[in-house]
## 1
Amino acid sequence: MATKRYPLFINGFATKTSETFKVRNPSTGKTVGLAPKATMAQLDAAVEAAGEAFKSWSQTSDKERADACHAIAASIEENAEEIARLLTREQGKPLNGLGSRFELGGASAWAHYTADLELPVEVLQDNNEGKVEMHRKPIGVVGSITPWNWPVMIAVWHIIPAIRAGNTVVIKPSPYTPLSTIRLVELMNNVLPDGVVNLVAGDDALGAAMSSHEGIGKIIFTGSCATGKKVMANAAETLKRLTLELGGNDAGIVLPDADPKQIAEGLFWGAFINGGQTCAALKRLYVHDDIYKDVCKHLTRFAKKMKMGDGLKETNVLGPIQNKMQYDKVRKLVKDAKKRGGKILMGGEPMNNGKGYYYPVTLVANVDHGVPLVDEEQFGPALPIIRYSDVDEVVARANDNPNGLGGSVWSRDLEAAKEIALKLECGTVWINKHGMIQPNAPFGGVKGSGIGVEFGKEGLEEYTNIQVVMS
Ligand code: NAD
């Protein structure tokens, strides 16, 4: 069977490109499909189409836009299994566990929730001296740039609030995982007027060109800190609105009163959701001296039961690392941690099965700050477990990092945990869980983890400009 060739979407039309690039399955190395490689002229055409469509889309009624978002959510539901399979093949994550089916479920749930959000006019003053109203108006063309870890869900997080608020969109998915996003945008185009959502795919240069494009009014970017800074610099000349959802190095602090056996499952999935390739995964685990051994024991025991392998096989709940660059990075960090005295509780060596970027769940004890596996974002299935004895001091160590996306505290005493939670420098903090996001709670990073938030009313407002009317 010939390899399927995927199109761009410009002004409602599936658009061919003269060049394509192969998208490979990280489980097998086989080609999943041929992605379109857009030219700069095609990017310009997509931005122009979005600009044209904005003229009428921004004038549609609130109800019309909410209905369209619900219709997209329904269409995602109807096609969920097909997209989940494509996502598993290009991304590697399993169908089951917190994998592709979970991601598709999240995508439709977020779209439905966001459809029902509203941006009412606020009356700030209404008295003898006059009336002051605050309106929320769409910005124009929104450029969306997405990463390879949760490509479908993140595309929905970007696109749905943008169009709900009356903007139009040009999205550029990651070159590692563009195919499921192309299918998603095809479904959206079956619902929306031409040009409201456009898609270009290609290499990183396309993202850089979007960041400085004169026709784009706002960039919503999810990806690494290094690239986020480049986006911000490139966007400066045209003074674009920006939401940057960047990397994290989330700390989890286990207090001495926690029950090691009971928290093992939550710790495991907090750290190893999507094989650790999740922005707000638990990436540094701090455990009190009194229960250090027990937490290591129960976490290892739980982790050993989790099956890793080809995501299309229904029994697997963990897949490979998505690409070679990340695979090499995780290998290097673990090798280095070992050299610096880290004790491998499980994993620690690549799985030599000859194909795929498989790296086992790896738990590394007896490491501390100064070891790159602790200090840097590993973004893969390797968790450093750090010992501490003083609670105030561990809070300072947890905060001693340039990132500030999420954090967690684990304890039987919720009040004591909350007190510590409030001292953590991060956008979201969980108690006795980690990484659970939801569409009604604003999510975003502080410090080096980004600017702005997504989700909820506050997330929707980021796709608007304020206009004040005084009479
Ligand atoms: P990346 O920064 O390498 O790539 C992200 C996107 O940016 C891709 O589409 C890429 O093609 C594009 N890009 C590359 N160079 C560009 C440039 N100069 N200008 C504009 N765009 C450019 O990130 P990744 O490796 O795909 O994703 C992993 C990172 O994303 C991790 O650090 C992770 O923590 C972070 N992430 C953050 C969140 C969040 O919500 N905070 C969510 C998911 C992932």
Note: The CA atoms of residues 103 and 150 lie 7 Å apart.
## 2
Amino acid sequence: MSIKKIEAVLAPAPAHMVGDGFRVHNFFPGGRIMDKKRMSPFFLLDYGSKIEFSPSAVQRGVDVHPHAGFETVTIAYHGRIAHHDSAGNSGVIGEGDVQWMTAGSGLLHKEYHEKEFSEKGGAFQMVQLWVNLPAKYKKTPPKYQPITNDMMGRYAMADGSFIEVIAGEYKGVKGPATTFTPIETYNARLKKAGMAEFHFPSSYNTAFLVISGEVIVNDQPVSADHFVLFSNEGEDIQLKATEEAIVLILSGEPINEPIAAYGPFLMNTWEEVDQAIRDASQGKYGVLE
Ligand code: MN
């Protein structure tokens, strides 16, 4: 056993709106985690903490915008989110589902509250992760993986707690998402007093986000909506729920390449960013109404 040390426990930053549908706290890059490679291969984490949306005839969200050079991963905890992209993919994810979209060579998409959810209103809670692609896969064709909750790997424990595996593998249970670099993404859904241990290489960048409940990470208490950043020392983490809890677990092998990030584009060089801006504005990412 070599305990992975906690580098910081971060409270959520003040929320900002993405479009009119996503009220998010950014955990990185920014704030206490300014280094754009600190959580590589994860580049960005926006967390929509739980709020109530009032009923709306107009579907709130983010209208058509481009992405290129990375993947957007949306995890729904409450509410329903719809998606359309210029590669011809669309879908709706609800509570417990994940949408894993590879922008790769470039596309346009829009993301918004699903129609019926919008009309009824209700609780909304989600995560959006941006996962970087290494240079050799930057131009991979766009891809869309709708991962419903029942598709996820499930490592069950005697007390009813379980680990939901979205990507990677936990104790022999594999997740359905295909990834371009080694990535572990799970939800730990623990009953009160439920426990789980995790083992990730010290070189992997690793973090937990407490979605709900109170937990103890190693020996440190952590509240809901807080983010635990681990140092790159040690490999083992102990998680214990002091009350019923959900914790998002993220770990991945860093991509050691230059980053040129501008708005919705994530490239290796500024020349590639300029090209992406030109491509998007010249309609090379297709058309989406
Ligand atoms: Mn987007």
Note: The longest strand covers residues 42-53.
